[in-house]
Write a structure and sequence with these properties.
Blueprint (H helix, E strand, L loop, with lengths): L1 H10 L5 E2 L5 H16 L7 H6 E2 L1 H18 L1
Parallel strand pairs: 1-2
Helix pairs in contact: 1-4, 2-4
Length: 74
Amino acid sequence: MLRIKYKKIFNELVYEIDDPSPSDNGRLAKFKMGWLNAKSSKKTYTNKTLNKRLTWNNLGYRFVKELVDLMILI
């Protein structure tokens, strides 16, 4: 059930450019930073920023925000 919801999150991402940088070593760190920013009330990413370029950082942010929305719906 959750696997289907993960696919739904990734399939509904909106962005103009997919920016896979940085190198493999930095991807997890950037993803985690976005994840932590989403959990913090101090950092808010705007749709304008999120929709322009898909990065590992904002992917982590988006993923957590979508998971929270899904948990509210369950």
